[in-house]
Amino acid sequence: MLWTIVSKDDFGFGYAAGRKRERLYRAALTRAASWLSQTGAHPARARERARRHLAILSNYYPRQRERMEGLARALGTDVVEMATASLALASLPGTGCTNFAAVPPATSDGKVYVSWNFDLSPLFRLLLGRMPLYVRDIAGNKPYVCMGLPVLFGIGVMNGDGLCSCVNSVGCTDGGEGLTFFELNNLAMETCSTVDEAVEVWRNNPREVLPGLAMAIIMNANDIFADMSGEAVVIEHSHNHMAVERASDHGGVLASANHHQFLDRSLSGGADPVKEPLIAGSYARLARMWELLEMFRGDIDRYTARMIARDHGLNYSTLEEFGLRPDPYGERVDDATICCHPWNFFRHLRRGELVEALVEMNVARTLNSIIMDPGRCTIYITPGNPCRHQYVPVWVGDALRMEWADRAREEIDYRPEGSLRRRRRRVDMFRRPQATRASDLARSLALRAFGALDRLMSAGLVKE
């Protein structure tokens, strides 16, 4: 069963999460402090920024502030520290994820599918585990399944009305303060039933964007939404600008990667492979995703969706407009496949390109592949690369109180009462809450190692 947090109010939700996963939160707070120290952030300025963010929450999203208050109470600290950690964790570097949505008439069975290849540093596996999903059920809100760490950062993937979402981190320079994309996403998932309602959340609230190109910032993201009416949208935004594209204008399909394809990059200051070579892989992944969606449009079902998520093909056509013509039979562009692997890691090492090797190892890795099938009340997830792991079906119809759950039971091919497969070997020592002194020590050493890798990687990249 998924970890489910049921609460009568928002303060109680934060408090319950903190009490249940206290060790994990303290590790996250330590990591946030380490990241702020690495980036040279002045403690007083970081806390002042957190206070401004709390004021924004009070005006636009008071429920989230209440949750932070509850978490702070559970951990014996103050809410400003919670906000400081939340903003720091949201600004960690990351360049991954290649996603798509398919709705009728692109699907052969009339269903809605949303696919998310979650590509990030293995650091996040240490923090979140191999199956990083949980259920948020707070009175007065729609229940939904979320990925992440409750309150500090989390992305809703499916709610009780069948609204589904997936995101891609993206860099841009049009920055400013507001609600982070985590908060915008959570606000949409707990209040909205349709994609049009979700779009209004983005339009009606200030959008926080952290300026950055060289290392696509997790806080900045494109967001795909799909609903049970058979529509999907992708929202691309910066602080002052946004663009919305509909699947109905593309024959029922949408794709997204780690750059702006619909929002004018001259407005957002978005990255291109000339300004930032690291983003070339995003352009290649997006081109390949569109190629596959066009190829299978009208025939997409849950099995086709899995095949697309496992793809290792290459498509460099979108790089040609920038004067880049990689050899399709030569060495791959870094981070260029939908199912992401550090293909060039050892090639970089052989050439003495240590920073490039560390970047490739840190960003070119699919931690989980998630396929959302709201019509069957199911989320399929892999505990690693989808080409190497089977999808584990997770029944969410009962936890989310979906009205069509009884009908969906007749369409699924697995036992809904079955629990997620859990590995019991010591290799799974980072799972919570069954912590031991040995697992705490191992996690601490691992986080220190990844901190060192982050510093080496950051030193070799130009920040804007």
**Which class do the helix and strand fractions yield?**
alpha+beta
Widest sheet, order of strands: 11-2-3-12-13-14
**CA-based gyration radius:** 21 Å
What's the CATH class label of the domain at 93-413? Alpha Beta
Query: Beta-sheet strand percentage?
Result: 15-25%
Q: The CATH topology of the domain at 93-413, please?
A: Penicillin V Acylase, Chain A
Mean pLDDT: 87
Largest sheet: 6 strands, antiparallel
User: What proportion of the residues is helical, as a percent range?
Assistant: 25-40%
| Number of helices, counting only DSSP H or I runs of 4 residues or more | 15
Number of strands: 14
- The ordered H/E elements are EHHHHHEEHEEEEHHEEEEHHHHHEEEHH
What does this structure look like?
This protein is an alpha+beta fold. Helices cover 37% and strands 17% of the residues. The protein has a domain at 93-413: 4-Layer Sandwich (Penicillin V Acylase, Chain A). It has helices at residues 10-20, 22-38, 43-60, 62-75, 79-90, 123-128, 181-191, 195-203, 265-268, 280-296, 302-309, 345-350, 354-363, 405-409, 437-459; strands at 3-7, 98-102, 113-119, 133-138, 144-149, 153-159, 164-169, 221-226, 232-237, 242-246, 253-256, 366-373, 378-382, 392-395. The protein is globular, with a radius of gyration of 21 Å.
